[in-house]
Amino acid sequence: MMLFVSTDGALRAPQPGTPKLQADVHPTRLRLLQVATRLFQQRGYHAVGLAEILALSETPKGSLYHHFPGGKPELAEACITRIAASTLAALDDASASGSDIIGFLRQLGAESSAWLEKTDWRDGSLLAVIGQEQGGDESALADAVRIAYQRIEMRLAKWLMLEGVAVARARDIAATIIAAHEGAMLLARCRRDTAPVQLTTQMLCAMVERG
């Protein structure tokens, strides 16, 4: 399971995505979302142009504006919303499977490390990459990132509360998990080394265990 990123592989060999997130999505719209997400994860919003998205997705410009009348900004917002939905679904699936938060964090750390190496350190967290670019701007993209993080934080806190963690403490731990994981992913990419992810996973597990 991965959080905050797309592992569709749309820029390489096509791979099946998560069926419940792709059901009833037009193939052209889905292809645009997959390609744009991977490009944004790698280089950020501003460094990616519509021409590149259209070329890699093999989509006519008219089709892009049919599915995303607002152009690149609307496409980016849809990518953020899709990542948030994927993350929330992963959290729900893990919780429903009977896994505890510590088991979830260990799996997240292992899969995140493997994914960073597989992508040769090119892909980062979509929310973090776009969020850093937007900074404190009052823009639709910045709002989309903030809302996505808030929804994920609330879902993590809910899971922690179900495990018996007090409300205020659950919220603090949830925020810390997100901040630490995103920071670890960034540092790992910079160093081309998974050690930051592994260390952060250990520290987060110890924090959750203390409650």
Search tags:
10 helices; mainly alpha; Tetracycline Repressor, domain 2; globular; 211 residues
Please give a structural write-up.
The structure is a single chain. The chain is mainly alpha-helical and 211 residues long. The protein has a single domain (19-210), classed as Tetracycline Repressor, domain 2, CATH 1.10.357. It has helices at 19-22, 27-43, 50-57, 61-67, 72-96, 101-118, 126-134, 140-162, 167-191, 195-210. 36% of the residues are buried.
Structure summarized in a few sentences:
The protein is mainly α. It has ten helices and no strands.
Q: Strand tally, please?
A: 0
Strand content: under 5%
Name the poorly predicted regions. Answer: 9-20
CATH topology category name: Tetracycline Repressor, domain 2
Rounded to an integer in angstroms, the radius of gyration calculated over CA atoms is 17 Å
* Named CATH architecture: Orthogonal Bundle
Number of helices: 10
The overall average pLDDT, rounded, is 89
Helix content: over 70%
SSE topology sketch:
Layout: H1 19-22, H2 27-43, H3 50-57, H4 61-67, H5 72-96, H6 101-118, H7 126-134, H8 140-162, H9 167-191, H10 195-210
